[in-house]
Amino acid sequence: MFVSFSDTPPFDLAPGAVARALFGERAMLNLVEMEPGASVPLHDHPHEQLGLILRGSMTMTIGDEEREIREHDGYVVASGVTHGGAAGPDGAVLLDVFTPIRDDYRQAAERIAG
Questions:
Q1: Among 55, 77, 78, 103, fewest CB within 10 Å belongs to which?
Q2: Which of left, alpha, beta for 111 (phi over 0: left; psi -120 to 50: alpha)?
Q3: What's residue 112's pLDDT?
Q4: Cα 113 from chain centre
Q5: If we measure between CA atoms, which residue out of 43, 38, 41 comes closest to residue 57?
Q6: What are the pLDDT tens digits along the chain (114 aa)?
Q7: Residue 41, preceding bond cis, omega within 30 degrees?
């Protein structure tokens, strides 16, 4: 299967942050575009999350550690660990991988797709 993220309907993650998701059988990709200064509040979930900053920068908190991350920096968030982040002055584009699949993201994507 081939997919163009340009054709995938975006859904809101937080004010100024939209996502486009691709679902496999046991894992998913999530392309996130964040406006300058947009933030995803601290939260946790039972999914393992791996991420990569494709463009821009973010200040990200994972557990007790806060760090500024830039293009080609990656991160790992273990299941149940509190995390969140704020885009830098030029915004941020990031790619997240989740396993298992996030049903809340699937439902949001399906609502948008109709």
A1: 103
A2: alpha
A3: 85
A4: 19
A5: 38
A6: 899 999 999 999 999 999 999 999 999 999 999 999 999 999 999 999 999 999 999 999 999 999 999 999 999 999 999 999 999 999 999 999 999 999 999 999 888 877
A7: no
Report yes or no: 22 and 86 within 8 Å, Cβ to Cβ. no
Query: Which residue bears the tokens 């885009």?
Result: 87
Name the burial class of residue 53, with classes exposed (0-12), middle (13-18) and buried (19+) by CB atoms within 10 angstroms of its CB: buried
Which residue, 43, 11, 19, is CA-closest to 94? Answer: 19
Residue type, 60: M
- The structure's pTM equals 0.94
Whether 41 contacts 13, CB under 8 Å: no
Handedness of CA 62, 65, 71, 72 (dihedral sign): negative
Exposure b/e, 9-46, CB count within 10 A at least 16 = b? ebbebbebbbbbbbbeeeebbbbbbbeeebbbeeeeee
Q: Does the CA dihedral 98-55-31-64 come out positive or negative?
A: positive
